[in-house]
Design brief:
With about 280 residues, the protein is of the alpha/beta class. About 35% of the residues lie in helices and about 20% in strands. It is built from eleven helices and 15 strands. It has helices at about 45-55, 75-80, 95-105, 120-125, 140-145, 170-175, 195-205, 215-225, 225-230, 240-245, 260-275; strands at about 5, 20, 25, 35-40, 60, 65-70, 85-90, 115, 135, 155-160, 180-190, 195, 205-210, 230-235, 255. Strands 1-15-14-13-4-5-3 form a seven-stranded mixed β-sheet, sandwiched between helices. Helix 4 links the parallel strand 8 and strand 9 (about 135). Helix 3 runs parallel beside helix 4 (about 120-125). The relative contact order is 0.20.
């Protein structure tokens, strides 16, 4: 288990929201159990719920984000067919899913794919694409510094990205001598309307988890800054933690693991609940 971190350095960038309604599901456990809110989009919370449920933790599923096509999405199949690059980089499960869609539309060409972490690689492997490189730490800047050059290659990297993705990966790749072709293939949008009963369940929970900066912004917009400041927030990694800080959440109420990843995230939630006195010490 990696140590907890509470360091923030980057400014918050406001995001646009959709008016779509977010659904929420209460995963029921024993009465009096510690309760955690999981906020990823539909279909993406199962692993965290499963990891926490092993410890008797009740989860309120409240998706705060959804994905929409990005402005460059239609370019992806043609670029994959052309193959004028050494690597395609995938930096999240959603980016991997979008890649798979474009790859199939392109006729499933032979490509060399690099991923930022194991969860992203699993999405590709399920579709029959085996990543040839996985970063040692699930961060774009680490991925960029570690990606190997292909002998005799073009040193061009195709980067299908989120509209809201930072430039960490492309900056790191450029510093390592690569030429980066970034295309914005999808967008992450925060929801603006949820059922009040479900929102009250979330507000009564011990911990809220965030897997993206957009989820942080959506939560603060829904409940207000004062209410958000009272909740212990546990982020998947430093990017979401910086968004918490920039949104005005106090550092002592925001936790995140050293290295992003599902196991480390779940372990960080357990440590947060222990700090709150809601769980005994648990070996992770």
């Amino acid at each position: 288990m990696q140590g907890l971190q509470q360091q923030y350095v980057q400014p918050f960038r406001p995001h646009r929201h959709t008016s779509s309604r977010a659904a929420a599901v209460l995963v029921r456990c024993a009465a009096g159990s510690p309760t955690v809110v999981v906020t990823r989009e539909h279909g993406k919370n199962g692993k965290l719920i499963k990891a926490l449920s092993k410890h008797g933790i009740q989860c309120v599923e409240l998706p705060l984000i959804e994905h929409a096509p990005g402005p460059d999405r239609d370019q992806l199949p043609g670029l994959l067919q052309a193959g004028a690059f050494d690597w395609v980089t995938c930096t999240s499960p959603e980016s991997a899913a979008v890649f798979v869609e474009g790859w199939k539309a392109a006729g499933s060409p032979q490509v060399r794919v690099a991923v930022v972490g194991g969860g992203t690689g699993e999405v590709l492997a399920a579709a029959g694409v085996n990543p040839e490189f996985t970063a040692t730490k699930a961060l774009g800047k680490v991925m960029g510094s570690e990606l190997p050059h292909v002998p005799g290659g073009s040193d061009v990297v195709l980067y299908p990205a989120s509209v809201k993705a930072s430039t960490d990966l492309q900056d790191s790749l450029a510093a390592a001598g690569f030429s980066v072709q970034r295309i914005n293939t999808y967008n992450t949008i925060g929801v603006t309307n949820v059922e009040q009963q479900l929102l009250q369940q979330a507000l009564a929970a011990d911990v809220i988890t965030f897997g993206s900066p957009s989820a942080v912004k959506a939560w603060v917009a829904l409940v207000g800054l004062a209410a958000a400041q009272q909740k212990l927030s546990v982020c998947i990694g430093s990017t979401s933690a910086r968004a918490c800080a920039s949104a005005g959440l106090p550092a002592e109420r925001v936790l995140y693991p050293d290295a992003p990843g599902m196991d480390a995230w779940a372990g960080c939630v357990l440590q947060g609940l222990q700090q709150l006195g809601r769980m005994p010490a648990v070996a992770v």
